[in-house]
Amino acid sequence: MRVAMFSAQNYERVLLDELNTSHGHDLVYLDTLLGPKTALLAAGFPAVSVFVNDTVDRTVLEDLARGGTKIVATRCTGFNHIDLEAADELGIQVVRVTNYSPNSVAEFAVGLLLALNRKIHRAHNRTRESDFRLDGLMGFDLVGRTVAVIGTGKIGTIFGRIMAGFGCTVLGFDVHRSPEFEKFGGRYVDAEGVEAADVISMHCPLTPETYHIVGRRTLGRVKNGALLINTSRGGLVDTEAAIDALKSGRLGGLALDVYEQEADLFYRDLSSSIISDDVIRRLISFPNVILTGHQAFFTQEALRTILGTTLDSISDFEAGRTLTNRISRRLDG
Ligand code: NAD
């Protein structure tokens, strides 16, 4: 099957070529993001594959449908970038990758927390300049502290279990309770409980209900000096409100692997460009902010599973088999 691979990175191409030997698809790699201006590039491709920052809204889907696209395969778990209702209406099937090493993201979130708390990013920069002072590098013991997990699904549960292993009290905030989360001692709380935590980590999907779920109100009530970790989706946190909370000192530190306006920035080398986004420049200027470019998923195991599952889904579609990773507004409500 002819597949237009949008946002294809070099590290993906090598692995896709290797995995595709057992599928035999005609993979065409495109550097560009899929969006209203680039959708026409997919004309004549029955399969289109996208990543987190591609735009797959109604307009784009209409262009894809006109060009003969029948399946959109997103190489990620989240599907906030895809208009499922429009896809259903246009008869385009959408598949994602539901289960690829949730450990990759959970472990990265733990890494961000440790670095943020113990100022490892600052220590690293200092020692490179032969500055071995400790001033400003003090953190706190995690043992005995309270960690709130917003979204106790696959990733949130693993993150919570690791933090329980550190000797933390682990709290969960979710619309559904997970027995797995409670098995290691995770305890469900309401918004007030989250606000009392020393650490808050985001692991729910971005939906209209969760947009800015951590906003000005929550950030005004969090425990003084609390640390906020977001490895889920940028839109979950009101970035401007977070900047104000950092400026006031209420928020003790912020670690982000995702950013509200990341689509124009991430996965590109902009080191010789002038960045016009003043919000991200402000964020980067704080000593107690760590920003990474949406890499929490990026392990050998996860990437192999993501790409393998994507090709499997396209092959299943071509052979008329059931699509186990299909997402549809009708199915997901
Ligand atoms: P999951 O579906 O297993 O878990 C999500 C949890 O969020 C579920 O328990 C769900 O009930 C909960 N939730 C939904 N709406 C909620 C609400 N309004 N309030 C509180 N909780 C709510 O998903 P997962 O595999 O654990 O992934 C979680 C998220 O992580 C994804 O949606 C994606 O955005 C993000 N992610 C990021 C990366 C990365 O590289 N940074 C990689 C993979 C996934």
From TrEMBL:
Residues 110-296 form the D-isomer specific 2-hydroxyacid dehydrogenase NAD-binding domain. Signal peptide: none annotated. The keyword Oxidoreductase applies. The keyword Cell wall biogenesis/degradation does not apply. InterPro entries: D-isomer_2_OHA_DH_cat_dom, D-isomer_DH_CS, D-isomer_DH_CS1, D-isomer_DH_NAD-bd, D-LDH-like, NAD(P)-bd_dom_sf. Keywords: NAD, Oxidoreductase. PROSITE patterns: D_2_HYDROXYACID_DH_1, D_2_HYDROXYACID_DH_3. CDD domains: LDH_like_2 (cd12183). SUPFAM superfamilies: Formate/glycerate dehydrogenase catalytic domain-like, NAD(P)-binding Rossmann-fold domains. Residues 4-327 form the D-isomer specific 2-hydroxyacid dehydrogenase catalytic domain. It comes from the Bacteria. Belongs to the D-isomer specific 2-hydroxyacid dehydrogenase family. This is 2-hydroxyacid dehydrogenase. It comes from Methylorubrum rhodesianum.
